[in-house]
Amino acid sequence: MTWTSETAAVVEPPASGPKPTRTRVHRAWFVAAVTFVTIIGAAAFRSVPGLFIDPLHDEFGWSRGTIGAAVSVNLALYGLTAPFAAALMDRYGIRKVVAVALGVIALGSGLTVWMTAPWQLLLCWGLLVGLGSGSMALAFAATVTNRWFTERRGLVSGILTAASASGQLIFLPLLSWIVTRHDWRPAAVTVALAALAVVPFVWLLLHDHPADVGQRPYGAKEFVPRPAPVPGAARRALTVLFSAVRTGPFWLLAGSFAICGASTNGLIQTHFVPASHDHGMPVTTAASLLAVIGVFDVVGTVASGWFTDRFDARRLLAVYYALRGVSLLFLPILLAPNVHPPMLFFIVFYGLDWVATVPPTLALCREHYGEDSPIVFGWVLASHQVGAAVVAFLGGAARDAFGSYDVVWYASGALCAAAALMALVIRRRAGAGLAAAAA
Hints:
By secondary structure, the chain is an all-alpha fold. Helices cover 75% and strands 0% of the residues. The longest helix is centred in the C-terminal third of the chain and has 30 residues, at 373-402. The two termini are 38 Å apart.
């Protein structure tokens, strides 16, 4: 047999030969740390839409519905790109896909400083940033988790999901200060620079597979060879989709996750700042409240990952959605010029619940779809972002039509109740409980 570099990548070093240097901390945790930092750097763009609505409306006279349409394109592409990005990572490797995605985010955000027409907002912020961010979506975290971990997957997926909230925590106060004191353009440049700053870390430190460094995945009993590149990334993403849509769990997961996106990215993240400003609250104060959501989102998501390793993921989802819906029904009476204790309670609670839905949703994808779960989760995430896109647009349109956001809060609360019911009727596969316990 001819010895090639590809052969070396898939064969574990013989026991009698030199052994790789062992470290106290498994390499998987370093890869997870780099992934965390990468998602934080890319998360800057997620802090911007709610901060830009009023400045763009004031400067260009564009309606909130028009601006919301650009945000909705961004959110939709964020989700629709994810499954193809997961397949591209199987074909070309995580490092190359993520590095290119960060460059596209920087390009799209940087070009916005020269825009003068709504179509340019759609192109730069909607198309380019949407495509780049979609390749940095939670399917990226799912791919890293599946390749590098066989134990603690729930915890790791929770930590990586929380990275997005950490980015919001870091960037929201800074960007809101820049928008208030200077202009929205320096804030857009800051987003571009944050994305570019992460590229060297990705290129130098983000390994594609444990076999690349001669290690087993964390918790694995045996060496796992690096799989051969999978050609036809787009075809594989569509093939997995066509297979998944024939199953009931896919539609229940996609439907409930669409409501999750509608009630988080589409609603609160996009419209909370302008809605609070409508009630006399300063923009910097409202943005700081969103940053507080980011603080508690980290806690809630990591805790949810820990719970997912131990409890029924379906019931966890039902509880998360039901409590979120109840909280939204109270929000219209909580908005005021000043921050008061009931509003702080809402912010803390919503932060704990923000993306706590991700670890159990990912666990259910893994339970039902196995090795295809990152791509299936990518399609489920697409539904999340489609839901977010719809509400990002309808929220702005409702504000233009009714003069307030009240009807949007109430409708979203009712949708969350429906999501809780959808989660409860997802069937559980035989033996899934034992598998979850082992993980």
